[in-house]
Amino acid sequence: NAGVTQTPKFQVLKTGQSMTLQCAQDMNHEYMSWYRQDPGMGLRLIHYSVGAGITDQGEVPNGYNVSRSTTEDFPLRLLSAAPSQTSVYFCASSSGTVSYNEQFFGPGTRLTVL
Amino acid sequence: DAKTTQPPSMDCAEGRAANLPCNHSTISGNEYVYWYRQIHSQGPQYIIHGLKNNETNEMASLIITEDRKSSTLILPHATLRDTAVYYCIVRAGQGAQKLVFGQGTRLTINP
């Protein structure tokens, strides 16, 4: 299994540009999440999904959209990039069939907005 | 969610046991204690979790006090590769997608 994969690994955007960060998992996990991590800080939840067609907002959802059309994929869209969105973005997935929450994280996408 | 308190940094000698404390005095009865770590700039990695009893796996041991208001993660024989930021998170079990990461403890293993 490849686990959780994210593309691209690095991205530089100009203010106002839009882009989509890709996340995929091959573990048939129901749950998927997007976090951002600013320098020296812990991770903050942006959006999450408990299954295909179901998404919800996390702690810092403004400026981001998500959709979940398949179990495997959970893309994160930046609608109009701002310098405040410069961060490292992590995608995670976990199984909904166990009683505890072990999240598997991808390697991250490092985004710089100029 | 119960808030957790961890020391910002700790040092440990290679080969010794690393004991990382976590306070979670407002934990509810249905909330688990999870530990994750983040090595350098990688994605966080799950280590262990527990509800009431002490737990052990191939990576670490988790000791939870009887009143559940604090816990300790133990890395029995720390190596240089254990240098990382360790996060203690308290969250209910099922459907627990909203993991709240604090700033964690930066553990440095010294040769």
Write the layout of secondary structure elements.
The complex is a heterodimer of chains A (114) and B (111).
Chain A: E1 4-7, E2 10-13, E3 19-25, E4 31-37, E5 43-51, E6 54-57, E7 64-66, E8 76-78, E9 87-94, E10 104-105, E11 109-113
Chain B: E1 9-13, E2 18-23, E3 31-38, E4 45-50, E5 55-56, E6 61-64, E7 70-75, E8 84-92, E9 105-110
Overall description:
- The complex is a heterodimer of chains A (114) and B (111).
- Chain A is mostly beta strands and 114 residues long.
- In chain A, 0% of the residues lie in helices and 49% in strands.
- In chain A, strands 2, 4, 5, 6, 9, 10 and 11 form a seven-stranded mixed sheet that branches.
- In chain A, strand 5 (43-51) and strand 6 form a beta hairpin.
- The model of chain A has no long low-confidence stretch (mean pLDDT 93).
- Chain B starts with 8 loop residues before the first strand and ends with a strand.
- The mean pLDDT of chain B is 91.
- Chain A binds chain B through residues 4, 31, 33, 35, 40-45, 48, 50, 58-59, 88, 90, 92, 94, 96, 99-108, and chain B through 32, 34, 36, 41-46, 49, 87, 91, 93-104.
Structural descriptors:
A: 114 residues; mainly beta; 7-stranded mixed sheet; B: 111 residues; 5-stranded mixed sheet; 4-stranded antiparallel sheet
